[in-house]
Amino acid sequence: MKRNVGKVVEYLPFLGIVAVICTASWLAGRSSLVSRPSLVRSPVRR
Amino acid sequence: MAFDLDEQLNGSRVGFFTDTSICIGCKACEVACKEWNQVPEDGLDFTGMSYDNTVGLSADTWRHVAFVEQRTPMGRQEPGVGDMDFRWLMSSDVCKHCTQAACLDVCPTGSLFRTEYGTVVVQEDICNGCGYCVPACPFGVIGKRETTGVAAKCTMCYDRLPAGEEPACAKTCPTDSIQFGDLDELRERADRRLRQVQEAGMTSARLYGRDPDDGVGGMGAFFLLLDEPEVYGLPPDPVVTTRDLPSMWRHVGVAAAGLLAGIAATAWRRR
Amino acid sequence: MSQTDVRMDGSAETRADREATPGSAGRRRERLVTQRAQTDSYYGRPVLNEPTWKDHDIAAYLFLGGLAGASSTLAAAAELTGRPNLARASKVGALGALGGSLYCLIHDLGRPERFLNMLRVFKVTSPMSVGTWILTAYGPQAGAAAATDVSGLFPGLGRAATVGAGLAGTALATYTAALITDTAVPVWHEAYREMPFLFAGSAAASAGGLGMLAAPLAEAAPARRAALLGTAVECVAATRMERRLGPVGEPLRRSRLLRLGEALSLAGALAGVTIGRRSRVAAMAAGAALLAGSACTRFGIFHAGMESADDPKYTVQPQRRRLAKARAERELA
Ligand code: SF4
Ligand code: SF4
């Protein structure tokens, strides 16, 4: 049991990194829609 | 290969010739190596593998004596165990100090280097413990030491050679199964010895690693074996992994160009 | 210095024991020779030493490096075709993945504080050395690309960095194939022809997945197509690899992680180009499936290699076949 917990813990940094990447990227993908207009005008309408 | 190590070193390349036909399995080499090089303890287990409790080469085992028990005659020798045919093969394994050494090729820090004697040595103070050399070695020789975090393997007693001393294992070997010396001379001696052993009825005797045209360009430590290499835990036809590296880089190049073209194509269309 | 000179009698001559031959102590009594079973290993012990790499570091790095590299390429393509949101999301994702890559790489070292020792040398014979320099070239550009985009400062510099990172990214996403195939591990080494394509495909699929997850639907078309194309390339490369490797490919064919990875990637890619075009939620789910699929594929490849290093038959048998073939060819000639 303890060994298994130890094993799962080893993967936590990786899972954390992936979660951070997804969140940051998701926020970045929304930022210009929410607040600041993009520097390059998008020809594609939302 | 354009680069000829033997020529570069101008005949000063040294090596081991391990003649397993006269090994008595005393493990004095294992002990002498540990003592001289201060190699730490590597587990005290009873494996049940004949008299071998050392198991194999690793960061903390630089000489390893293999014990193989077979119900086969040893040439024309009387085994003296009743009606049974029996032979005991013993062989002291060590780093091969390959002419084309994969460990050295892949080391990203330059910690592994080729010495003036033609041997391959790890510099403990440079190695960052990336562990690349471990899966690169086709013989399973080098390892990463848990306690220090850096790679370790046989140095052919790099610190004894300048003093004109032979490596500790060769020095201690009571039967001269481990012979140290000038590699060219050892190769000649091995050829003579092979003929002698074969004439004595051991037709399965062969030299392993003597041939400079093999997959690792010949080994600085080579062997006279009495059976197939794999029986002793040695790869039958080892090839330095970097031999395919030029082709690997070409494939990587094509894949990278493909990735660029593919992603460019996906963005081409507006919708 | 060629022979032992320690003697009980102090003489320095080569002694005769060295010349002893089997049988010199007495001739064998005639008896029937028992047929010997062919052994092809030393007590079943592996020939190779087990790689010290940990999957949660190195397999994770294979995934994160691919994600970072392909995301940068996707970001450059998106920016140049006027899709700023996809570009920004991909740049930020790439920077995050780069940070994760560095963490994993350094964490796996036995002496992390000596990380910089890799900048002492440049060796083409060492993919890890080449990779270090690729990271050194790619990292600052990826960082600058993300920072300028998010802050809105120095747009010109940002554009140059974006393109630079996009180009270097393709190298980062594919060199890792050379990194693992340039070893004696049978499955990895033998697969060196397909591995770069598998990794490129898997990287494109994960970058596409991240783009679908993060970018608005109207801009995510390149991400959807990259995911589909990447998944297709990945699956074809994997199938070819498994077939071509023959007996050595057994650990690959047995790998449940690889099957799971393929299933997730295919499901994500197909969902992405269908319902993922209309529904934001579906696109996010498809993107997450693609990311998970790519990660499973990398872990699967990693473990199949470890398995092949751990069993002597994968090392010994192909080599024996090679020797037999060479012998047959010699005899024919
Ligand atoms: S046997 Fe292995 S560790 Fe020794 S020189 Fe050859 S590749 Fe390096
Ligand atoms: S572990 Fe040390 S010796 Fe081995 S390749 Fe890495 S830096 Fe070189």
TrEMBL record, chain B:
<feature type="binding site">
    <location>
        <position position="107"/>
    </location>
    <ligand>
        <name>[4Fe-4S] cluster 4</name>
    </ligand>
</feature>
<keyword id="KW-0411">Iron-sulfur</keyword>
<feature type="binding site">
    <location>
        <position position="127"/>
    </location>
    <ligand>
        <name>[4Fe-4S] cluster 4</name>
    </ligand>
</feature>
<dbReference type="Pfam" id="PF12800">
    <property type="entry name" value="Fer4_4"/>
</dbReference>
<dbReference type="InterPro" id="IPR014603">
    <property type="entry name" value="Formate_DH_Fe-S_su"/>
</dbReference>
<feature type="binding site">
    <location>
        <position position="95"/>
    </location>
    <ligand>
        <name>[4Fe-4S] cluster 3</name>
    </ligand>
</feature>
<feature type="binding site">
    <location>
        <position position="103"/>
    </location>
    <ligand>
        <name>[4Fe-4S] cluster 3</name>
    </ligand>
</feature>
<feature type="binding site">
    <location>
        <position position="130"/>
    </location>
    <ligand>
        <name>[4Fe-4S] cluster 4</name>
    </ligand>
</feature>
<feature type="binding site">
    <location>
        <position position="26"/>
    </location>
    <ligand>
        <name>[4Fe-4S] cluster 1</name>
    </ligand>
</feature>
<feature type="binding site">
    <location>
        <position position="157"/>
    </location>
    <ligand>
        <name>[4Fe-4S] cluster 2</name>
    </ligand>
</feature>
<feature type="binding site">
    <location>
        <position position="33"/>
    </location>
    <ligand>
        <name>[4Fe-4S] cluster 2</name>
    </ligand>
</feature>
<feature type="binding site">
    <location>
        <position position="98"/>
    </location>
    <ligand>
        <name>[4Fe-4S] cluster 3</name>
    </ligand>
</feature>
<feature type="binding site">
    <location>
        <position position="23"/>
    </location>
    <ligand>
        <name>[4Fe-4S] cluster 1</name>
    </ligand>
</feature>
<dbReference type="GO" id="GO:0030313">
    <property type="term" value="C:cell envelope"/>
</dbReference>
<feature type="domain" description="4Fe-4S ferredoxin-type">
    <location>
        <begin position="86"/>
        <end position="117"/>
    </location>
</feature>
<dbReference type="GO" id="GO:0051539">
    <property type="term" value="F:4 iron, 4 sulfur cluster binding"/>
</dbReference>
<feature type="binding site">
    <location>
        <position position="133"/>
    </location>
    <ligand>
        <name>[4Fe-4S] cluster 4</name>
    </ligand>
</feature>
<dbReference type="GO" id="GO:0046872">
    <property type="term" value="F:metal ion binding"/>
</dbReference>
<feature type="binding site">
    <location>
        <position position="137"/>
    </location>
    <ligand>
        <name>[4Fe-4S] cluster 3</name>
    </ligand>
</feature>
<dbReference type="Pfam" id="PF13247">
    <property type="entry name" value="Fer4_11"/>
</dbReference>
<keyword id="KW-0479">Metal-binding</keyword>
<feature type="binding site">
    <location>
        <position position="29"/>
    </location>
    <ligand>
        <name>[4Fe-4S] cluster 1</name>
    </ligand>
</feature>
Automatic annotation (TrEMBL), chain C:
<dbReference type="InterPro" id="IPR052049">
    <property type="entry name" value="Electron_transfer_protein"/>
</dbReference>
<protein>
    <submittedName>
        <fullName>Polysulfide reductase</fullName>
    </submittedName>
</protein>
<feature type="region of interest" description="Disordered">
    <location>
        <begin position="310"/>
        <end position="333"/>
    </location>
</feature>
<feature type="compositionally biased region" description="Basic and acidic residues">
    <location>
        <begin position="1"/>
        <end position="20"/>
    </location>
</feature>
<feature type="region of interest" description="Disordered">
    <location>
        <begin position="1"/>
        <end position="36"/>
    </location>
</feature>
<dbReference type="InterPro" id="IPR005614">
    <property type="entry name" value="NrfD-like"/>
</dbReference>
<keyword id="KW-0472">Membrane</keyword>
<keyword id="KW-0812">Transmembrane</keyword>
<dbReference type="GO" id="GO:0005886">
    <property type="term" value="C:plasma membrane"/>
</dbReference>
<comment type="similarity">
    <text>Belongs to the NrfD family.</text>
</comment>
<keyword id="KW-1003">Cell membrane</keyword>
<keyword id="KW-1133">Transmembrane helix</keyword>
<dbReference type="Pfam" id="PF03916">
    <property type="entry name" value="NrfD"/>
</dbReference>
